[in-house]
Hints:
Layout: E1 3-6, E2 9-12, H1 13-34, H2 41-62, H3 84-101, H4 106-131, E3 140-142, E4 148-150, E5 159-164, H5 169-184, E6 189-195, H6 199-209, E7 216-219, H7 223-228, E8 235-239, E9 245-250, H8 255-261
Parallel strand pairs: 5-6, 6-7
Antiparallel strand pairs: 1-2, 3-4, 5-8, 8-9
Keywords: Cytochrome c-type biogenesis, Disulfide bond, Membrane, Redox-active center, Transmembrane, Transmembrane helix
Subcellular location: Cell envelope
Transmembrane segments: 6-30, 42-62, 82-99, 111-130
Amino acid sequence: MLTFxxxxxxxxxxxxxxxxxxxxxxxxxxxxxxxxxxNPESVLFVLFVLGLLAARVGFVVAYxxxxxDDPWQIVDLRDGGFLAWPGIVALLVxxxxxxxxxPALRRPLGFGxxxxxxxxxxxxxxxxxxxQGTRLPEIxxxxxxxxxxxxxxxQGGPLVINLWATWCPPCRREMPVLEEAQQQRPDLxxxxxxxxxxxxxxxxxxxxxxxxxTNVLFDGSGRLGQAVGxxxxxxxxxxxxxxxxxxxxxxxxxxxxxxxxxxxFETPDSPTTPHSATRKPPCPxxxxx
Length: 289
């Protein structure tokens, strides 16, 4: 399960865990303050924002080569580019400085920060362990020429599976980034699984946008999204050669966030022939296979 869905509303579980951690920290801090001390609610929110800012700055610094040509991407948080450890360090340092200046805040703030951080760490670790225990779903898909294939037919090499649709703005924005990665990483197999659209509309879209993609597949009923527990688009999944889920990304991918996600896979020392799957259908001239 990658998203929490309520009606038409969907939120990534990792985002929900962050919000839940802040809510828990605020509640615990408030309860402790009732027994003596200052309510840390406003301080906890400021520390939360400070942690997010530091996590973003740390990510940008670590992947600066992907931002230097277009610095405006730094403020585009939709790519989900954050590093946890700079955020945690900034939060703890900020909490210590605040507690030092305001003694009445020390105990409520300490319990609030401690409980929220512990909850987030344990929940995130549990979610990661759960995700990495899931396998490549056994689902039938269709190629652009109407042939039925099994998703597991592509097992045998590392897989990057992108769930997308032409009506989805972040899907359209990230497509050139994925196209470039497909060309630069021949050791990986990229599958572009369209969700519940006609083959004609997808082929027309790719042609008008000048996109040259291989392994474009069609999931007419959206079963793949249901199987992996994601009701949001775009969703990108990263599988090992033996079909084990290594990681996932919900939302738009930038060059930087995709580069980080592809660290799940080792970079070959020299150009290699793409991993051959158990069964791969031929690619027609339209390049939407």
